[in-house]
Backbone:
């Protein structure tokens, strides 16, 4: 009889304890999600036993992180980046317990730094760069380099003339391979402390979805002081945080635009006020001009990062273009946030070109996107005197480069990497396609809390230096204001 | 250049009679190699059939070098030491012209060390873009090629004979035969998978314990490198962002052929799944693409990123090969491109090691 039982998206959401949009996301992101038994006018219906089996497999795979070196490698990288960026004293005594993980994380960062070098002739220079760029001290460098050699990511070689050089063997196309090698080395280390093991596993658990603290196996077996120490370090590094005041449910703020717990409250409140219209406008017209915004609420939302905004300056003066917060839909996984950021920057520049440029205005931004993604045109725009200023932000985000011509004009050329081309495609969708994410801006922020496959590296330097999400007090202030409206 | 049927061919590594033209071939081969060409002598253009070698011809000396767009410049040389009346310069010139077209060579040279060539035949050569040399001109041409270049002492007769002996073990015959014949006859995308496939069969015997093991790997790596350059050129044309797709498509002879195969593969998969032959916990269909496709894309990416260094890889392989045989080799350098080229060479050798499951590979 069980075979005949059919259920819809809402029932699946209830079964899994998530929201229906989260289930919709699972369907689009997981090719192995059960196929619907029928597509009714009211929506798809599924065979219950298939869905239950899928949910069971999914849960098992979540608990199975210990065997997945790629995920371990990624978490190690994220931990080290977070400690460097957010912990005041990254060499404090408390961090001794996490030494093996930190060395592995530093190795992963070093691997990213040397990626594409092929041959490192001057190791001393690399050591200095590692110290400046990544905060890796010389003794730490030596340990991390040993690990890289052990993982066959770097090879030492003596040339026929007796010069000692390093051959870089970091995989450029399949990033997961680098993390796999680092993860495997970490997994094979005997000297890992219980605390660092717990921290890595906990981070991986909560990065998938918010989890009740009692459900996190890695923490369950720790003594209370150790457990508190692990969670405190996670909190200080900005990689683990609690959703609720009682600190019952934990999540990782690493992969979201803004703090989801505050965003949920904010969107809920916003939906009941005139502010919801601002978000609706931003959703319907990504890259809305917020330059003249005077509403203090709007200004605070922009400065607090709730409405991601981009400032473009050229001959027409500075303009600010804002977007609705990302609520899923256009990206296939969380690690593509960097791509969304690039796409938004592109849209902002094109909006400026079509609305605020003083010399020549873009009639159709789509033509510009077509031109810079056209290999036959060498991914270039025709020379223009205003391009250097107008597209300055795109250079900073490594989307393109500007070449000066003999007569003092500028050519913009896209750097045709996979992520930049994808950013152009998303920019096209933002300009002409459907709105990003949920139609209803007040939709529960649980949509943010869906699982995402994490294979691609986060831009490691970007993690270390990325802007912090809006501070709790800023968001709390906004919510208070909304409640007062 | 000789022509004939398969029955007249000697088995790999065994010379049944002395090749009278060999000293001249070695001289020309040495000069071309020293001047930066990847050079081979006695390149046979033939395919193997069930009965052995099918209709066959060969090129006495073939030199190839690549520019940074991975486009090749090839030169074919026909070497004739005899002076008998039966040796017809006109026939050699016309014949070489056909071979040049077949192997895609831009330049052809017919070198007669003894026979005098009348002026009207030199004109004929010019019209067919074939340089005709005779007597002392041959040596002068070789000297011009290597003018100012240190002599690496490649292609000494004793070394060449030692190289031929390398391929004599029975278990080497498959690889030797392929590299000697089919490889050059087809000279297309098929070589990439075939070279790996043939080396894979030999790999268990390549342990590094014998000095000639290095020769086998280096010689095979050089052949692989030629076909890899062709793949690099394709990827450059399609755009580096499509490196993975282009690599997979190249292995199957292009995008349409790849799509057709993939389509067929998925139908077979569906059919076998629906009949219960395949199941998630039971037997599965082997993947369509070779297991090394991702690693190959990675290698191509590295090569395209550093074209100035990548095009030196062939020369480095050639130099390592002859140095293993006792040649002096080219002087070492710590030039940036040279260091990167050495690294890329190691990458290529390591790729072959992993792709063939070999337990050993030489170090640059």
Residues:
């Amino acid at each position: 009889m069980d075979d005949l039982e059919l259920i819809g998206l809402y029932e699946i959401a209830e079964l899994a304890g998530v929201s229906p949009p989260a289930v919709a996301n699972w369907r689009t992101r997981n090719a192995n999600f059960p196929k619907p038994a029928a597509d009714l006018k009211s929506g798809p219906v599924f065979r219950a036993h298939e869905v239950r089996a899928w949910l069971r497999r999914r849960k098992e795979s979540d608990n199975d992180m210990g065997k997945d070196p790629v995920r371990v490698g990624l978490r190690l990288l994220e931990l080290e980046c977070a400690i460097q960026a957010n912990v005041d004293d990254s060499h404090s005594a408390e961090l001794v317990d996490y030494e093996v993980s930190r060395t592995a994380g530093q190795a992963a960062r070093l691997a990213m730094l040397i990626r594409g070098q092929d041959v490192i002739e001057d190791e001393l220079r690399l050591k200095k760069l590692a110290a400046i760029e990544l905060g890796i001290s010389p003794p730490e460098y030596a340990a991390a380099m040993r690990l890289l050699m052990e993982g066959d990511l770097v090879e030492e070689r003596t040339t026929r003339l007796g010069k000692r050089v390093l051959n870089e063997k970091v995989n450029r196309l399949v990033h997961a391979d680098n993390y796999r090698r680092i993860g495997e080395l970490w997994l094979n280390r005997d000297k890992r402390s219980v605390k660092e093991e717990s921290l890595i596993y906990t981070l991986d658990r909560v990065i998938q979805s918010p989890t009740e603290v009692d459900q996190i196996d890695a923490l369950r077996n720790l003594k209370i002081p150790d457990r508190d120490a692990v969670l405190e370090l996670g909190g200080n590094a900005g990689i683990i945080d609690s959703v609720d005041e009682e600190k019952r449910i934990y999540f990782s703020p690493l992969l979201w635009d803004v703090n989801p717990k505050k965003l949920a409250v904010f969107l809920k409140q916003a939906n009941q006020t005139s502010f919801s219209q601002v978000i609706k406008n931003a959703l319907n017209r990504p890259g809305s001009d917020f330059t003249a915004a005077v509403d203090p609420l709007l200004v605070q939302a922009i400065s607090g990062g709730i409405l991601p905004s981009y400032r473009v300056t050229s001959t027409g003066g500075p303009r600010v273009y804002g977007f609705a917060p990302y609520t899923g839909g256009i990206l296939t996984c969380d690690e593509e946030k960097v791509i969304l950021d690039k796409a938004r920057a592109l849209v902002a520049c094109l909006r400026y070109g079509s609305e605020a440029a003083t010399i020549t205005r873009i009639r159709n931004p789509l033509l510009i996107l077509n031109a810079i993604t056209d290999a036959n045109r060498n991914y270039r725009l025709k020379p223009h005197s205003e391009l250097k200023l107008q597209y300055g932000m795109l250079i900073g985000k490594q989307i393109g480069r500007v070449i000066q011509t003999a007569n003092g004009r500028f050519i913009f050329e896209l750097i045709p990497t996979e992520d930049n081309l994808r950013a152009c495609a998303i920019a096209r969708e933002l300009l002409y396609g459907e709105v990003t994410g949920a139609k209803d801006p007040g939709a529960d922020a649980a949509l943010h809390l869906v699982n995402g496959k994490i294979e691609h590296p986060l831009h490691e330097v970007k993690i270390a230096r990325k802007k912090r999400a809006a501070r709790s007090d800023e968001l709390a202030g906004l919510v208070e204001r909304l409640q007062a409206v | 250049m000789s022509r004939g049927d398969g029955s007249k061919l000697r088995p790999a590594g065994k010379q049944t009679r002395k090749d009278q033209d060999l000293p001249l071939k070695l001289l020309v081969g040495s000069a071309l190699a020293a001047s930066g060409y990847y050079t081979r002598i006695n390149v046979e253009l033939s395919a193997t059939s069930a009965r052995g070698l099918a209709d066959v011809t060969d090129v006495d000396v073939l030199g190839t070098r690549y520019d940074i767009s991975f486009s090749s410049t090839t030169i074919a040389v026909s070497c004739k030491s005899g002076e008998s009346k039966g040796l017809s310069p006109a026939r050699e010139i016309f014949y070489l012209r056909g071979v040049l077209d077949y192997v895609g060579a831009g330049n052809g040279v017919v070198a007669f060390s003894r026979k005098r060539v009348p002026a009207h035949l030199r004109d004929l050569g010019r019209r067919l873009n074939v340089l005709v040399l005779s007597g002392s001109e041959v040596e002068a041409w070789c000297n011009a090629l290597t003018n100012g270049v240190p002599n690496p002492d490649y292609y000494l007769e004793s070394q060449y004979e030692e190289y031929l002996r390398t391929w004599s073990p029975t278990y080497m015959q498959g690889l030797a035969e392929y590299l000697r014949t089919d490889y050059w006859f087809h000279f297309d995308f098929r070589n990439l998978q075939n070279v790996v496939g043939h080396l894979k069969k030999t790999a268990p015997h390549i342990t590094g314990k014998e000095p000639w093991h290095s020769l086998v790997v280096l010689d095979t790596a050089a052949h692989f490198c030629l076909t890899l350059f062709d793949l690099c050129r394709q990827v450059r044309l399609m755009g580096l962002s499509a490196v993975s797709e282009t690599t997979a498509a190249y292995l199957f002879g292009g995008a349409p052929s790849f799509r057709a195969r993939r389509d067929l593969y998925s139908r077979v998969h569906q059919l076998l799944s629906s009949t219960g032959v395949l199941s998630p916990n039971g037997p599965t269909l082997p993947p369509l693409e070779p297991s090394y496709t991702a690693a190959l894309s990675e290698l191509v990416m590295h090569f395209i990123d550093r074209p100035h260094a990548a095009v030196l890889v062939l020369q480095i392989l050639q130099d390592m090969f002859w140095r293993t045989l006792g040649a002096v080799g080219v002087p070492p350098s710590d030039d940036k491109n040279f260091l990167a080229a050495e690294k890329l060479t190691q990458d290529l050798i390591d790729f072959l090691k992993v792709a063939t499951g070999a337990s050993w590979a030489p170090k640059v």
User: Anything to note?
Assistant: Residues 68-254 of chain A form one domain. Chain A touches chain B at residues 116, 118-119, 121, 155, 157, 159-161, 163, 165, 167-169, 171-174, 375, 416-418, 421 (CB under 8 Å).
